[in-house]
């Protein structure tokens, strides 16, 4: 196929938009932690831009997209071998495709950092995301988009399964080794600056237009559909979260509205280009309702998913992936159009991904825990990771 | 009556509050301050250059107590601020005589106002 200039422009712009989600995520998470951990928490997102970008071009892209088997891609494109400036994927240069897909590989492990703030060694975090990108992300990406056993079966427009379910479930799995922050459930581990979190939410939403609408890989009607559903679902989700808080707690909180928006963004990711704007409203609303109830589980069950990486990304990703099977009407049909089989395929994809992401993460966690260790010492945790891991403080008097 | 001023490490504040709650001491003032004693400063790194940060973040706790509670409150602050190890820079507790107290709303004075 020939290169289309407009498609190329849109995918390149979208790639830059998705990269901007990393600083957005850094601000989102950074605002939610205590003053003593803000730099370390932001570094979790920033360092992913370095580590994962390199890993992606060296080997990750090959494992996800080179010819392989049902489970994982081959080594045909290691070091981007076999790709040059004239290579074409669809209607865009292959380099643009590698870059765009690379952004997804960058942000997905960074999402996990929200569950483990304030207690993970920095070198262990780097080792963790590097291993996770190869062992968990690349195979699942290959299953869904790269010619693996879910390609053409499960509907996942922009990564509900590949990005949100994998990161959300892995967040929960790695807590097996990292446990709770000291003082969880006893001391108030309050957000130190919610204004950063709101700014981060805005940047995440902005970047998400590239994430979802860019996933059409073309400047066309499907990109426009994905764009508007990415506007509508988070709006509905933000409203639902705000209404629930207002009703239950008496206040519509800023953090609640921001969290609702994020849940809506996660929800619409798998279905962005498969559903109408009017279907995007219930998708956002339903997911927001489910996530609202899910984030309360950690206090009741006693696990410390610090910034709700599982509660929002994991749960939202699962609900969103299943709702594609209900509402799909563009480029696929769902339950509402009388196709019940799609729902079963979606469920299969969700279950397999949950099991695989959990197993892969437990394995990585086990190895790191036995070798370099995952958790900082008690006194380092008390002092904070900014000083102990980075030798800096965020706010000087 | 005595006025207690304690300078402690910021990361020990929650532990000190827990110890004080055990004694049902629930009136205190807390502020973020900077200073140093024997601990001197520590090095921080900005743009690959080490800088001496000679003012360290500390937390100042102020509590007014009746004389009979003085010793137990001091013990509670010590326990919380020291933690397990209690290395240099764990802080100091100052005790000052307190001449009078007045509760603004009711005009109560002295120990009744505490």
UniProtKB/TrEMBL annotation, chain A:
Its main location: membrane. PANTHER family: AMMONIUM TRANSPORTER MEP2. Residues 9-395 form the Ammonium transporter AmtB-like domain. This is Ammonium transporter. The chain crosses the membrane at residues 12-33, 45-66, 95-118, 125-145, 157-179, 191-210, 222-242, 249-268, 274-295, 307-331, 343-368. GO terms for molecular function: ammonium channel activity. Pfam families: Ammonium_transp. Belongs to the ammonia transporter channel (TC 1.A.11.2) family. It is a multi-pass membrane protein. NCBIfam families: amt. GO terms for cellular component: plasma membrane. Gene3D superfamilies: Ammonium transporter AmtB like domains. It is found in: Cell membrane; Membrane.
From TrEMBL, chain B:
GO terms for cellular component: cytosol. One of its GO terms (molecular function) is ATP binding. One of its GO terms (biological process) is regulation of nitrogen utilization. SMART domains: P-II. Transmembrane segments: none annotated. InterPro entries: N-reg_PII, N-reg_PII-like_a/b, N-reg_PII/ATP_PRibTrfase_C. It comes from the Archaea. This is Nitrogen regulatory protein P-II. It comes from Methanosarcina barkeri MS. The lineage of its organism: Archaea, Methanobacteriati, Methanobacteriota, Stenosarchaea group, Methanomicrobia.
